[in-house]
Known about the structure:
Low-confidence stretches of chain A: none
Strand order of the largest sheet of chain A: 5-6-10-8-9
Mean pLDDT of chain A: 93
Distance between the termini of chain B: 35 Å
Strand content of chain B: 25-35%
Structural class of chain A: alpha+beta
Shape of chain A: globular
Distance between the termini of chain A: 27 Å
Oligomer: heterodimer
Number of strands of chain B: 5
CATH topology of the largest domain in chain A: Alpha-Beta Plaits
Shape of chain B: globular
Radius of gyration of chain B: 13 Å
Amino acid sequence: MAILPPGVSAANFAKALKEFEAAVGKEWVITDPDEIHPYRDYFSILKDQDDELVPSAAVCPDSVEQVQAVVRAANKYKVPLYAISTGKNFAYGGPAPNLRGSVTVDLKRMNRVLEVDEKRNTALVEPGVSYMDMYRHIQERGLKVMIDTADVGWGGLMGNALDRGIGYTLGPYRDHSNACTGMEVVLPNGELMRTGMGAMPGSTSWQDYKYGFGPDPSGLFAQGNYGIVVKMGFRLMPMPEHWRTGLITVPRRRDFIALVDMVNYLTDLFVIGEPIYSSPLNGLLGDAAFRRAALDFNEAEMDRIAAANGRHSWQVELQFYGSERTTLANWEWATELILRTVPDAHCFAGDSLRMPVTTAQIEAAERPYPAPYSSVMRRNVMHGVPKLYMWRSPGRTDESPETWNETHIGLFSVVGRSGEAVLKAQKDFQDIVKRTRPGAEFVASLTTPLQWNPNTFFLGNSFFGTATRNDNSPEGKIRQLKELREVLKLNAEAGYGDYRAPPLLQDDVADQYSFNNHALRRFNETVKDAIDPNGILSPGRGGIWPKAHRSRRGAVRK
Amino acid sequence: MITRRHLIGSSVAVSALSAFFPAASGASPARSLPPVALIVVDERFEAARALAGMLVAPGARQVAMTRDVLDLWHRQIAPACQRGALSIAGVTTERGFFLLHTLAADLRLRVLSRSHHGALVSWLIGRK
């Protein structure tokens, strides 16, 4: 055995493995280094280094009872566990644990779709069910519901929801964590608990009312380490009759404020799915004068050059789900709303498709808008069809085989959901780049928000995603890690918190949420110590370290 | 655009795979493996087609790598593996290789051999 769990002797680890084998069968306890290999983060900054976050072994239970037995054995020998569903979200660390030497509890064998109710529009699934599994289950049965898939369709419904993943359709569905309708959890002592109506024996409405009675602890299991979720309910979107899109552009930089106000209004009335913002001015960045103006946030000059080039400054693509008539009425309403406040806005009708759409419609290359405007909307996710189209980061891409980057990290900051807040954040982000890497040139003034969660704007500091390309040396990667940590610190100083991170950066993100001397962290760790006194479940996840391992907070490449 | 020039170094690939595909090098097989059921080829690239043509695996079916890798996996590759054909080979881009070997890991299949040549990778995945 190359790696031992921290604080566990070789003899005790061997005994623990024997008990794991008794629980799940010898075949499903994995210790062969070759076979443990897939439980790494392929794109880790610390890849192949002595402190890379890798497990000591993996165990693959097939039932709730087996999960319980594994947890009880881990308690006996104080072996830290790290549970994964499909473990394929590589932007956030893939299957890698927070604590090197943990035993991965791989729940892929628990991949049963337990129930889909197309009248109540709910589902109950096990942890290993991927978006593709669920999509195929629905397709094969001709059910009149649709899923809201993540970009990368090999991910798991449950794992994505528990990491607060997001999607693209209507608001209640694309906030995957919030679409949860109840769960069954193996607690750190091996006991089984259900939340919501599931806590009532014989309940006939588990997926209908997520709260039940009293405090609802289900939120604690997202980005946390208080239990292993073994069943989760989801609200599903009934299949609409029709899907319609449209593009709205506004001419001046400051018109972004009115554009966001209009889109927020429609979002909060549940009229539109995810709006896709972008700037047609990205196409002018090759023009030296425009680039200078964009770098300097010279708004008058940016507006002048945009007008001279016949381009509007901002665009948003809207999507409507409903019937043919209601989607048309809602599109026309959206155009009325924007023209009231920005009379020289342009509105272009887009797709109008009967649902469910065909594969050919999803993959159609043509887009309906006149140059210089174009669609950046990905139809497959808007229709809940899982694909891997977005997977481009690892190694050499098909499109640019000579340009590649071995690391792959997602970091997105939460900013205020208004046009004013976005325009301010753009300046702040550019300033953060200057402070982190003096002399670097980065245009942030065209960065647009991602509204994956209907109530939230996420803004990515894309500079650090591209600046390290072609520098795959260990030193280059460590420099990248240090820069990212500095960025997270500066983000917090400017009032921006990040919503998600790979294990290597979770302590840094948790540090951002430090109100009242880290009252939130102290609360989380008080709960952790109470329910997991041996600290065996996913130590460090979400920045929550149990007493047994608390000294390891922020210890990796500090 | 990947062209024939990327076949420079393909002899390395053939050498690496020769343990499993004796016809690629004229050598005797160094190891015995379950039969290769499928050879996945990214047919967009002439070099991939040419290299795949050098691999001889009796009974193997050649399938085209499609843009929709997930669909290809679920419709063709995974069912073949689950029917007992536990080795698959391919000549694809790095991206295609990564996606397929990551999916294959769920069936406890591992990368037995790989060779990079230009932007293409030839590979063999199966039970150790």
